Amino acid sequence: MESILEFIYLHREIIFILILSVFLGVEVISNVPSVLHTPLMSGANAIHGVVIIGAIIVMGHAETTLALILGFVAVVLGTLNVVGGFVVTDRMLSMFNKKQKQ
Amino acid sequence: MDEVIKAEELFSFTLGESILEITYIIASVLFIVGLKKLSHPDTARRGNIWAATGMALAIVSTLVFHKQDGEHIHNIGWIVAAIATGTLIGTLIARRVQMTAMPQLVSFFNGMGGAAAALISLMEFPHISPDLIRAHGMFNGQVLVILLGLMIGSVSFSGSMIAYGKLDGKISDIRSGLLRIVNMALLVLLVAFIVYIMSLGAVEPASVMPLLYAFLAISLLYGISFVMPIGGADMPVVISLLNSFTGVAAAMGGFLYNNQVMLTGGILVGSAGTILTILMCKAMNRSLSNVILGAFGGSKADDSGEAGQIKEIGISDAAVLLNYSPKVLIIPGYGLAVAQAQMLTREVDHKLGQNGVEVHYAIHPVAGRMPGHMNVLLAEADIPYDKLLESEEANEQMQDVDLAVVIGANDVVNPAAEEDPSSPIAGMPILQAYKAKNIIVMKRGMGLGYAGIENKLFYNDKTRMLFGNAKESLQQVLNEIKNMD
């Protein structure tokens, strides 16, 4: 229990950010029209690709070959998430834009 | 001398560190603004680019400025190679895949993020700070965060892969009460694992690795059994949910590294994803638990013995009806997507336009396999935006419509939603096709819709059924119309 409390104390700022981000996330996407549900889901999907930062840090401090290989895989997967996510979202939205101009 | 060098090191350390933190702040702001813009039709595309810019900033800055124990990132060459590989494969897949397969693709990329989060946890576990273990044993925040990241990431990965398989038609639904019990058991087991590992006391993290692998395996299994019983038509909701899971898994990494951008990005998606999931359920007039437990298909509320007679229509009669109805309303559904009939629909539309027929499309918010599915498909076929009507608009005009053509849609035009309070879809807003003067329903067969209930529209006096693959039927109808000239 004590250590959990200590963890909370040590990370109080980040916990603060966490709580505010929860409310922010809710606030930011309320009132989204249903047509945009899928592109929004896809865009959000790309954003959680931020996990790649963690993969880079792991790989950046890898000491054994195994760690390097696993880190390599993690970075590739993270990049897939990021790049694939943003490109797919853009592709979906480009179709919406096209038809709105017509 | 020594002191001078130390001061310089200190200075360069803080400088790099501050640039890193500042770029992280900028990246977080770009994520938030990007997400905000993504939720408005006019700014959506820009929002996506803003978020992508934020991501690029965060990645480059981490590569250049990140320090751990005073050391810069090693293996830069390998990391850049990995990023290049991922970029190449990701772009290729994202560009090549057909628009109809879009939901699968989102699910696939989501799974990749989950797997990356799980891998990070797996690799960081042996590196838990020895001081922390000496002081508190395994019962500390780092262990908890790693375990949660591993569990949520793996569930998201295996779950997304199953969702991908289901949408791709490779995996069929399994509905059994047993699976629900298995699910509960696995969940309890996972919690038990977390409690047990954390109560181990001051042990070497490396010695716990076998347990951790077992924990990983159970998490993966849980992801599979969690998604398995959920119907294929509900996959968008599930993907949205798994999407927010991955966000939370990424945020766990943020905790682990005290990294703000991972935390903001992850939590933002976690909470926005959850709200989006709930919004999607609302559009179908169902609750999230109803989707997850799969209430559809179990009970058949309405046994319509007095259903009446089905009346079929031939290709040539259908063509005549289309060609001589002044006002035609097309109601597309998942069947149109499956048959890849969007291009042919446009050709028929075009031909009818030449013959003076006014053609519109009524888009139900949940028609297809994801919200906005039909909009994307019809946009792909270059059907003008002003021909698409939203549900309410379409319903207002419905009594003036001479012919409503339902292509591969079922539950979204089922009058039971309005008439029968005991129906599983009771209260769901529908397209009131039954109000049109004539109705043609294109369908592969008399199979039930996803909700597993009869559709009285098919037995309506004004309704004619045109059985067969939508693409083939439309092609034949088109030829027939052309022959009439």
Q: Stretches of chain A where pLDDT falls below 50 for ≥5 residues?
A: none
As a whole number of angstroms, the C-alpha radius of gyration of chain B is 27 Å
Number of domains of chain B: 3
Mean pLDDT of chain A: 87
What report would you give on this structure?
Chain A is mainly α and 102 residues long. Chain A has 2 domains: 1-31; 33-102. Chain A has 5 helices and no strands. The N and C termini of chain A lie far apart (62 Å). The model of chain B is unreliable at 295-306 (pLDDT under 50). Chain B has 3 domains: 1-96; 102-295, no CATH class; 315-484, 3-Layer(aba) Sandwich (Rossmann fold). In chain B, the strands form 2 sheets. Chain B has a 6-stranded parallel β-sheet with strand order 5-4-3-6-7-8.
Search tags:
heterodimer; A: 102 residues; mainly alpha; 83% helix; flat; B: 485 residues; alpha/beta; Rossmann fold; six-stranded parallel sheet; two-stranded antiparallel ribbon; 61% helix; 7% strand
Short summary:
The complex is a heterodimer of chains A (102) and B (485). Chain A has 102 residues and is mainly α.
